[in-house]
Write a structure and sequence with these properties.
The structure holds two protein chains of two kinds.
Chain A: E1 2-7, E2 13-19, E3 22-29, H1 35-50, E4 57-63, H2 69-86, E5 90-93, H3 95-100, E6 109-117, E7 120-129, E8 132-142, H4 144-152, E9 158-161, H5 163-167, H6 169-172, E10 178-180, H7 190-202, H8 227-233
Helix pairs in contact in A: 1-2
Chain B: E1 2-6, H1 9-20, E2 28-32, H2 39-49, E3 64-67, E4 73-77, H3 84-89, H4 92-97, E5 101-105, E6 118-125, E7 132-139, H5 140-144, H6 147-153
Parallel strand pairs in B: 2-5, 2-6, 4-5
Antiparallel strand pairs in B: 1-7, 3-4, 6-7
Helix pairs in contact in B: 1-2
Classes of the chains: A alpha/beta, B alpha/beta.
Chain lengths: ~230, ~170
């Protein structure tokens, strides 16, 4: 079962391919915000180098965020387009899960932290379980100071991963029970995405392309109150 | 709340240029007012003062247009959006974090996703055809710090008098 993964939740964007033998190929680029220009050629390159055809893909996995909206929009739209064209199902996975997963060999509590910009962070806590990580509670959006308070309130040893932790490293570096991961764990990876998606695929946990939507976290999706616009048309 | 008054489209552009002189990277300026009130004219004066040379046109049908100037300007029009999540899809936090300025027509309806700091500019029709009344409502600490400077800069346009509109703006 060949699965294509598309990840574009942060400054980095990438793709990866996995089948029953393991990860076949991955491409990641962390320069700039040119996700729209990057993803299609990267997918084509990964397929060519892995010696597979895009038409062999049985499922498309996407990172559904939270993260940067311009990037997520490109990645999710690309994934939906490929899944719809190939008539294959999709698997949506949270960016924070992808960040925490490579840190699964640590016994510490893990905080996966993505820079939401303008002084806000998306974050969630995880703990090590056999074969992976388990999320402790829902992902939230909050200020760096709020995250710092939550970390201070927990006596356990903690590992911070993600570009949000790196950006506000000065708030966390001096805390006694905290270690900051290095650059290798700064962005969610398409490799983690296809690894987690492969496990879900074996459990047949599919989504249809029209069911996949980005995680916003910031505000409830309210309808805009257009009383102003309605008055104009009256 | 700071008030101003203009008597022509040209004056509206001049007024907007003065406001543009006060903005900093990452700022949000919200334009509120009926169709034809002069939101796009304001945007044109605002953009020209930021050193943008290409023509600024209404982004109603494209929702967002980007211009390069002394500061990058993202000119948005949210008139065609139906849900707040669509406003999040614009990726405003990202461009503002990178030092751009956002000018958002009809932005008063997406205030829940704008963050604490923004300047609301409400434009209303005045007595004569080309008369416009402006109410500036600075919101959040970043704009509170510039409230006095804004008042001083706009003093020449002040429409002090009993007919000053209260607008729909909230406290400032």
């Amino acid at each position: 079962m060949l699965i294509l993964g598309i990840e574009s939740a942060t400054m980095q964007a990438g793709c990866a391919l996995i089948d029953h033998e393991g990860v076949l190929a991955s491409v990641h680029v962390a320069r700039g915000r040119r996700h729209a220009e990057l993803l299609a050629p990267a997918i084509s390159f990964a397929c060519d180098q892995a010696g597979v055809s895009l038409t062999d893909v049985c499922a498309v996995a996407v990172d559904v965020g939270p993260g940067l909206f311009t990037g997520l929009r490109v990645g999710i739209a690309t994934g939906k387009a490929i899944a719809a064209a190939l008539r294959v199902p999709m698997i949506g996975i949270s960016s924070l899960d992808l960040l925490a997963f490579p840190a699964r060999f640590s016994g510490r509590r893990i905080a996966a932290v993505i820079d939401a910009r303008r002084g806000e962070l998306f974050y969630a806590f995880y703990r090590h379980v056999p074969g992976g990580v388990q999320r402790l509670g829902d992902p939230v959006v909050g200020s760096p100071e709020e995250l710092q308070s939550e970390i201070l309130a927990t006596p356990e040893e903690q590992l911070l991963v993600g570009d949000g932790a790196a950006r506000y490293a000065h708030l966390f570096a001096d805390l006694a029970n905290v270690e900051l991961a290095d650059q290798g764990l700064e962005h969610p990876s398409a490799v983690s995405l296809v690894q987690l998606a492969h496990a879900q695929a074996l459990r047949e946990e599919w989504q249809q392309p029209w069911e996949v939507a980005p995680l916003y976290l910031r505000a409830p999706d309210a309808e805009i109150n257009w009383s102003v616009r309605n008055e104009v048309g009256r | 709340m700071v008030h101003a008054h203009t008597a022509s489209v040209a004056e509206t552009r001049e007024l907007a240029a003065v406001v543009a002189g006060l903005v900093a990277p990452g700022d949000v300026v919200v334009l509120a007012g009926e169709l034809g009130a002069g939101k796009t004219a304001f945007a044109q004066g605002f953009g020209a003062a930021l050193g943008i040379t290409e023509p600024i046109v209404s982004p109603t049908f494209t929702i967002a247009r980007q211009y390069a100037g002394r500061l990058a300007l993202h000119h948005l029009d949210v008139y065609r959006l139906e849900h707040l999540n669509e406003a999040l899809d614009l990726g405003l936090a990202e461009v503002l974090d990178e030092g751009a300025v956002a000018l958002i027509e009809w932005g008063d309806v997406i205030v829940p996703v704008l963050g604490a700091d923004y300047l609301e500019v409400r434009i209303e029709y005045g007595d004569a055809d080309d008369d416009r009344r402006f109410a500036f409502a600075p919101q959040g600490p970043a704009w509170a710090a510039r409230k006095r400077a804004l008042g001083e800069a706009l003093a020449p346009w002040d429409a002090a008098g009993p007919d000053v509109p209260s607008g729909g703006a909230t406290t400032c």
